[in-house]
Amino acid sequence: MHIKEVYARKIKDSRGEETIEVSINRSKASSPSGKSKGTHETPSYYQNLDWNIKAINLLKFDFSIQEFQDLKKVEDHISKVCDFSDVKSFGANALFALESAILKALARSKKKQLWQIIDPRARKIPTPLGNAIGGGAHSEDFAIHPVFQEFLLVPKGKKFKDKLRNMNEVYYKLGGLLKAKSKNDEGAWQCGQSEEEILDLLSKFKFKARIGLDIAASSFYKNGKYHYHEFDLDAIEQIKYINNLIEKYDLFYVEDPLNEEDFIGFKKIKKRSLICGDDLTVTHLERLKKAIFFDSVNAMIIKPNQNGSLLEVSEIFKICKENGIKTILSHRSGETLDSALADYAFGFQADYIKCGISTKWREVKLSRLAEIEQQIK
Ligand code: PGA
Ligand code: ZN
User: Fold this and answer.
1) What is the mean pLDDT of the chain?
2) Residue 377: per-residue pLDDT
3) Regions in the chain scoring below 50 on pLDDT
4) Is the pTM of this model over 0.70?
5) Model pLDDT, residue 248
6) What pLDDT score was predicted for residue 259?
7) Which of 55, 191, 247, 260 lies 20 to 30 angstroms, CA to CA, from 269?
8) Separation of CA 348 and ligand 1 centre (Å)
9) What is the pLDDT of residue 142?
10) Whether the CB of 305 sits within 6 Å of ligand 1
């Protein structure tokens, strides 16, 4: 395939904020954007969104792309033209949208599905991890909301469509049971109940969905303490508190239980649950290697637009698998209507996909996975 038509423009994400869409030979791809960002995350753009749009519209590609690995030619070309020693300097959102559009165009030129460009032998549909109740940085409506950022459902079921049905059922039942409520950025319920009140409520549905948490602990960690509404905890107390919650509520999944610099503290969180790095690892190979060295996690959030390079994302999947680390491909809180995340989750054979439950921006990804399940049976 030759890259003939390249066109980048601004579009609005689900929060109404500007993000980038790139069209290659008329195949379009876009980048979502995050709000609860890790300190070590790659910047989204080189200078700003306008700079990247102009730069992409000026790029000329005089080579052909035949397979996934040919993204190396694209990355080398950008590094050369822009004089970067690391292609990620281009900006993670801009690079991801560009690479994603190239892969979509390649799939179309070969009359294949996007996931087949990544791995035509992919078979296993990832399990959805759905944000049912939101607090922390994603919740603004209630004066006293939980400090934990996400209360997640890990639905049970034989097939993806059974899991989807269970997840939706529990999500709507929870909506009926919460006292005062509204919905946050990504369609999760927000309410004024405390962390443990919400966990008690979720426990009622254990036969349909196991419980997960994105604690996003860096967001309430200041001057060596974790600040809750009623009390403050130091690092040792926080580890004890989280380990108690894991036992008491039989938590299946715990994301970012500690501050994003505490690789050593993470080791002390009980690994009977999936202990997952997000702000800790920020979809970076070097941070993943550090987390492996310190035995910090047994699961990792992978947000393609947090890295930009799909080649590095592919390497991250490989290293996670070699080290027994479960992979969770994740959306961002500000999403677009692009369903490519579903193809990446399946193509890279992620164990889980985190992409919300309700609202059209999340549903396109879930229904795309249901469609893939139909196609491969
Ligand atoms: P985001 O974070 O707001 O950056 O998308 C979501 C998360 O912490 O998982
Ligand atoms: Zn997170």
Assistant:
1) 95
2) 81
3) none
4) yes
5) 97
6) 98
7) 191
8) 21
9) 59
10) no
User: How far is residue 252's CA from residue 144's CA, in Å, rounded to a whole number?
Assistant: 26
pLDDT of residue 144: 63
Please list the alpha-helical segments (H only) found in the chain: 49-58, 71-82, 92-109, 114-118, 160-177, 195-203, 235-249, 263-267, 285-293, 304-307, 310-322, 340-347, 360-376
| 322 Cβ contact list (under 8 Å, min separation 6) | none
* Closest-lying ligand 1 atom to the alpha carbon of residue 354: 9
In this prediction, residue 31 carries a pLDDT of 98
Name 71's Cβ contacts closer than 8 Å, sequence gap at least 6: 65, 99, 102, 103, 309, 310, 311
Domains of the chain: 6-118 (3.30.390.10), 127-375 (3.20.20.120)
Each as own residue / partner, the long-range contacts of residues 37-41 (CB below 8 Å, 24 or more positions apart, any chain) are 37/279, 38/218, 38/260, 38/278, 38/279, 38/280, 38/282, 38/306, 39/218, 39/260, 39/279, 40/260, 40/279, 40/282, 40/284, 40/287, 41/92, 41/282, 41/283, 41/306
Q: How far is CA 148 from CA 145, 170, 189, in A?
A: 9, 20, 13
Residue whose CA is at the smallest distance from ligand 1 atom 7: 36
- Residues taking part in catalysis: 186, 303
Tell me the backbone φ, ψ of residue 133, rounded to 5 degrees. Answer: -135, 130
pLDDT one-digit tens code per residue, 89-137: 999 999 999 999 999 999 999 999 999 999 999 999 999 999 999 988 7
**Range 102-106 contact pairs with CB under 8 angstroms and sequence separation of 24 or more:** 102/3, 102/24, 102/65, 102/71, 102/74, 103/29, 103/68, 103/71, 103/310, 104/24, 104/27, 104/28, 104/29, 104/340, 105/1, 105/3, 105/24, 105/25, 105/26, 105/27, 106/1, 106/65, 106/66, 106/67
